[in-house]
Fold these 2 entries.
Entry 1:
Amino acid sequence: MPGVIPLSWFLILSAVLFLIGVLGFLIKRNIIALLLSVEIMLNAVNLTFVAFSSWLHRINGQIFVFFVLVVAAAEAAVGLALVIAMFRNRETLNVDRSNLLKW
Amino acid sequence: MTQVLFFLFAALAIGAAINVLAQKHVLYSALSLIVHLVSVSGLFILLQADFLAVINIIVYAGAIMVLFVFVIMLLNLHDLEEGADRLRWLKFLGIPMALFLLFMILAAVINIGGVPIQGLLSGSPDAIGRSLFTDYLLPFEATSLLILIALMGAVIFAKKDL
């Protein structure tokens, strides 16, 4: 029975997961690892949506998770195509090396 | 029993997410992210969102992660995390900033306290489908357009002579 788990546990868990994603985005320099960190952040937000949906007895939150999944799929497809194009042109995946548009 | 399952899935999710960052090779990171996704799906099941849990596994762990692993193996990567990053000092700025953000979120969440999640909200395919095709019909159609644009964008980016 889900009645025994407080809402705040889910919120704290998803805050921690989101922070792990943010940390990964700041620390890692490999562009595929950055995309994976974005996926972790999206999952943390999904968890918040579902927890609030269950708490408020509205189905809307779960619909939004559905849309987040679609956006994540589109983001992964376009992002990985960009990764392939970047690797073909620069022979590296390090985001510090692709600095043509910087400064 | 439910709380034990919550702690089990939560520990697995956090551990797998940390392992994503800790691994040197990005392929192991991707495989660890699959464990993370499956444990988040377990948390969805604890929240009675059965349909989303299955969709999460099928779409994320099934399709998106296979795409990631496929690209990683296609590129045949080796020693990617080469050292001597020019912006290494930013790491020591980023970690305190991220921890500060965590404390801000926790300070907001603590006020909610231990309000238990009451009753059942069935996240069945029936309920989600009814809402998706009545109230959210226009966003659903816009989603198909988004997928089409992403498809064309991926094909154009992956062309030989970009």
Note: The two ends of chain A are 56 Å apart (CA to CA).
Entry 2:
Amino acid sequence: MSPSVLQRIASGDSAAVRECIDQYGPLVWSIARRLSRTPADAEDATQEIFLDIWRSASRFDASQGSDKVFIAMIARRRLIDRLRKTSAEPPMDPVEALETVVWADPGTACETSIEAEQATRALAELRPEQRQVLELGLLHGLSQSEIATRLGMPLGTVKSFMRRGLIKVREFMNVDAEGVLSEG
Amino acid sequence: MSDKRPQGQPDEAMVDLLIKQVTEGLSPAEQRALDVMDSELASAYLRDLERAAAAVTLAGSTGGEPLPTALSARVAQQAAEHFASSEKVADLTEARTAAAEKAHVQQSAAPGQSPAPGRTNRFGGYGWLAAAACLVLAIFGWERSPPPLPPVAVVPPAAVIVPPAERPAPPTAAEERAALLANADSLKIPLGATKDPAAAGVTGDVVWDPVTQRGFLHFAGLAPNDPAMHQYQIWIFDAGRDKRYPVDGGVFDVPANASEVVIPIRASLMVRKPAAFAVTLEKPGGVVVSGREHVVALGATS
């Protein structure tokens, strides 16, 4: 199997850097725009995420997942860290103005990545309100308290939905069936 | 990403904390609570939950927009700088290793000899990447990309007229701000709009260098003011000072038809630990102590 773009970056292939920006720029930009308070913030975050990617490329292990999921993990970590630092501020956009999420089609999600396909299948098994909690929390960066307020739902229910949803996805990703799975 | 998995199951408290870490981050108190739990178990399940969250993110991130061209160029430029810097460190390490080996075997090596195979070519191709990024930056500039904005109205520092032939033009506030943004030690803080009428639709940010005590505000959508009636005034809340008396950061105007402005901050006092930045609307010339009737923007460092 040919090395992934991250493995090529780690081995010093300079052309892979441009490929990585071209290939994963839209993904990083999409996540950054959703989980940032302003467009300027999203641009700063995107630069920080790519810097994290260059620094972390050598830690990528293809046997543990796709490069897409690795990059999405790096992006999420950085953006949550940034959101945490600015959590005292009000969101710049009213919650009602959140961008509509277009979920991957279960039949074609595998074109995105195997993990996206697994997540899509897991999400299909959730109740709509459970799926909505995951969408607001994971794709729009709302805190569990914000989700509870927005949906008029008890905080405990939001926590429960988030937990069951993530555990369901984890289950579909063929991870060890012990531990967290038993929580669901 | 290790294959080793710890034995045991996380308890409910650990799972709750890990899910919060993955979805919104932990407060210092929550982080302390997690720190006293089984770290090996926690990190294994954290990784799984992060992967699950990333997979959901991928499933919901279809049909994304391409990276804006100017931003893509900045990322490429940054990559070139990063790897060039990494290479210097590697070269230094290699030089030290070589020197140690030389001392050990007491052999002399001719200067300029060929380095070890595969080392010097590592990331040796970044010149083209940097050049390409510079070219795109030259074309698209450093302005923020989407959404497209009208020309930036920069409120410059006090004008000094110098004949162009004698020395180059000083950098604009926008250029100085871009330089500060690229400085890893600078604080970058989003500014949130308030309910004040002048703040409707405002977005902005602050960049502040605590070492040089220099900084810039950047706003889009701030209402133009009539300098004869009012001026905007910048305030810096220093964690080491009384909250009632923030440091004056200077006054500024927003010209009519200027939808975006970059304003240098002129702190009147040393700011040791900036906690927040605010902008108020005051009488012309500003005030010593603001009544805070019209706070139009606010941003906290943490």
Note: The longest helix of chain B spans residues 69-105.
